[in-house]
Amino acid sequence: MKWSGRRSSENFEDRRGMSSGGKTIVGGGIIGIIILLLNVFGGENAQMLTPILEQMNQGQSAPTEQRALTATEIEEGKFIEAILVDTEDVWGKIFQENNMQYKRPNLVLFTDGIETGCGNATSASGPFYCPSDQKVYMDLAFFEELKTRFGAQGGDFATAYVIAHEIGHHVQTLLGTSAKMRQMQEGKSEAEANKLSVALELQADFYAGVWTHYNQKMNNFLEEGDIDEALSAAHAVGDDAIQAKIQGHIVPESFTHGTSAQRKAWFMKGYKSGDINQGDTFAEIR
């Protein structure tokens, strides 16, 4: 994708190379895999790692020291910031068109572990949005794992899709959708609550597609293969794909993010329509 030449963002924080001062996962292992299963593309379902897993994973503390970023890391940061800027421009325009004001979230890059408004997080939690401080947190090591462990195609637009998905959760927070969903979950069975969670995640995929639609119109930034990269990433993080890969069987009632087919379909619906009014993913479970 074409991304150079974007303005700088006041909402980009690069904390890579900085001391986290906390526990980190050493070598990943089975605990890292479990946390990843629970939190990949966590959105608002990964606000805090479960206490039991935290305790199991606190056997070692890996001290970190400040270091200078490499040339590759600096270039990666510039790319991430460019995508963030694009989300600011697109959602600012969409909100303005609907007589609303868009509040820009922060995006934080980190390595190994970090303290957030939603609790401590590690690389194994995957990219996630914290509504408490309205920030997106990402360790870029996730994208290599997405390719090597889950078979995603990779590429720069796969990364852009992930960022756009997490920003979609911020949009849901601003619109009140997330709070309404949590209210709807109260008193529901686990299976019914999971269905609402799936609807929230699929809507974030839809918003990622809407962002892609608008950004293409505004910046003409797509290149051949970009949409395929996004769809490959969406496929890799479907609940069915992850469960089949990790545990060898699928348990539909435990889905919290949607199947690979659903995630791809809602992204494409947003991309093709560019209409935020067509993103009522909750209608499918009514």
UniProtKB/TrEMBL annotation:
Record flagged with keyword NADP:
no
Assigned keywords, A-Z: Membrane, Transmembrane, Transmembrane helix
Q: Its topology with respect to the membrane?
A: Single-pass membrane protein
What residue intervals traverse the membrane? 21-41
Q: Does the keyword Membrane apply?
A: yes
Which SUPFAM superfamilies does the UniProt record give?
Answer: Metalloproteases ('zincins'), catalytic domain
The subcellular localization recorded is: Membrane
Q: What is this protein called?
A: Metalloprotease
Source organism per UniProt: Flavobacterium xinjiangense
Taxonomy of the source species: Bacteria, Pseudomonadati, Bacteroidota, Flavobacteriia, Flavobacteriales
